[in-house]
Design a protein that fits this description.
The structure is a single chain. The chain is 15% helix and 18% strand. It has one domain: 3-Layer(aba) Sandwich (Rossmann fold), CATH 3.40.50.720. It is globular. A five-stranded parallel beta sheet has the order 2-1-3-4-5. It is an alpha/beta fold and 117 residues long. The N and C termini lie far apart (66 Å).
């Protein structure tokens, strides 16, 4: 079975999704935020930065999956050397982001008039 390292504690409701496929490991409540990373085949990444030093601690690592938009917190050059796949989930931001982003977006320009036939 694969071992997935989760940056945060996995809610019980989600555990059945990877049951019989992977074991979840998590550094929650550990003084070392990278606790057990050396056992990981995959990482479910959130806000932590993943650099070469971090990846060196995980010789089994095959993939870093970012839960959110972009992968700016992952050193792509460092991930390319082993190689480690890096993916993201752009559709995963919480709904609260939508109202915020709407407030940040300028209003649209008026549409041009439709030309007469």
């Amino acid at each position: 079975m694969y071992k997935i390292w989760f940056e945060k504690t996995v809610p019980d409701d989600y555990r059945p999704l990877f049951e019989n496929v992977a074991d979840g490991i998590c550094p929650a409540d550990q003084p070392d935020r990278w606790h057990n990373l050396e056992e990981a085949d995959a990482v479910m990444a959130g806000g932590n930065s993943y650099d070469a030093e971090c990846m060196d601690r995980a010789p089994r690592l095959l993939i870093i999956a970012r839960t959110g938009i972009g992968y700016d917190k992952v050193d792509i050059a460092a991930a390319s050397a082993p190689p480690i796949a890096v993916v993201n989930a752009p559709a995963s931001p919480p709904p609260a982001i939508s109202p915020w982003s709407m407030r940040q977006t300028p209003p649209p320009s008026p549409l041009p008039s439709k030309p007469s036939p």
